[in-house]
Give the backbone structure.
Amino acid sequence: MSNLGNKQTNYAFRAFTASFITIGGLITSSLPTLAVTDSYGNDYRVCAAQLLSVGVTAKSASQSCATALRPRELSSCVAKIHKLTQITPVDALYSCQQARRPQDLATCVVSISKSNQGSENSATLTSCGRSLLPVTFAECVVGLRREIDLSPTQALNTCIDASEGSSGFGGVSTKPLGL
């Protein structure tokens, strides 16, 4: 009889353990879903909140964040430009959406705007957006203006012309070196 009692106890223990594991698995599998919807780790939520906080309309914020490959970088770009320059969030949003690297665009715009003391903001935004290497472009503009008496527009045009001409595409000399 002791063998029979052990078998019944063993069966009851297995049934209880199987039920417990099943319920635990179901609860655990639902946790990531809850975490995604309720945390600020969600890049789309952060994007929307940041764009709304700088004055972008809800419709524009939702469309912009939804279509962004890196929504947190997009909203950070807009916020940085808006906070540190006189450029409107709407203008910044358009440029940040077009940029391959929104953070580099923001760095470019802010650096040049500080150097120009806020003048030529729209030209700065356009030029940084056109540049393939916006941080290098900003270094060019700021460096030339510090050492050479150039207007902000002249520095922007000089550096954008140089960056477009040195992209490695276009006319390449076939003349051998040393001749």
Observations:
- Residues 29-36, 167-179 have pLDDT under 50 and may be disordered.
- DSSP finds nine helices and no strands in the chain.
- The first helix runs from residue 2 to 38.
- Residues 47 and 164 are 32 Å apart (CA to CA).
